[in-house]
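SEQUENCE-TO-STRUCTURE ENTRY
===========================
What this section holds: a protein sequence and its matching fold, both as plain text.
Tokens: labelled as protein backbone structure tokens, with as many entries as the chain has residues.
Question of interest: how does this chain fold, as expressed in backbone structure tokens?
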Amino acid sequence: MLMGQVQPKLIIHGGAGSSLRGKGGVDSVRLSLFRVVEEVYGLLLAGASAQSAVVRGCQLMEDDPRFNAGTGSVLQSDGQIRMSASLMNGSAQRFSGVINVSRVKNPIDLALFLQDASDRILSDHGAAELLRELKLPLHDPLTEIRLQEWIQERAGNFSHEMAGVVAEKELVSEAGRGTIGVVALDSEGRLAVGTSTGGKGFERIGRVSDSATPAGNYATHHAAVSCTGIGEDILEECLAARIVVRVTDGLSLLEALQRSFLEAEQNRRDFGAIALDRTGTIAWGKTSEVLLAAYHDGKQMADTLELDEGLLTGCCTPE
């Protein structure tokens, strides 16, 4: 690596929620996550910017029907899919995103375009108009598993609060939480973060998630955080921004996560978060049972799939 450059780092997540059922489930999810980490980390090693690496990682996970973002998103109470995504460039401290957009393959692409726009967050109608302006092809993100999931819930009058975090019958849990997120540090020391979701499933029409807000997705040149879990809980804790501000104010990244998650547990919150800081420290936290995260620390890939249940924070610090 050239003098003045830093070792790139990467962490991604595919949601948070209840335990995955069976060892086969863990291995299958790990394989999906590691494929993304391997490709995106390769881009970072080749000199890609943190922002472009984050966008690519989000695209790959939005295209994987296993995860609740892009193709494979859950259905709302009226049987429609409405997705949200945001991108934040930590170096520029610039946030952009779309809320409740439909019929687009990669919502993160719209967030990327809006990085250079004067109006950087668009809701459903504005996002649909932008889709037409960009002449992106229409895409139906519906999968058969998500449709059957919605039909079963409708028969029970939507008695469950959440759709499954993972779109695979043997893995879906009644209390799953689904979002995808990517946080990257590039060789120039720049941070970026992106988060994308299909929502919590079966929700009231017009409900807004945390994913396209600074509560769920936030970065500066100090740190970057992507959240997943119950969106209302994340919003009420302003979780991503809270962690980043604490790092800016002098706490280490792990200290910032630990303090934030202890407060969250006292408030009975249910979520997870992944993070990076400018020194290359990789960190994560969860109050949910499982955090579907994987990372590359510059030497090897690892994941958080089989960590202990309940409140937990951890990190991987640079040597």
The chain has eight helices and 13 strands.
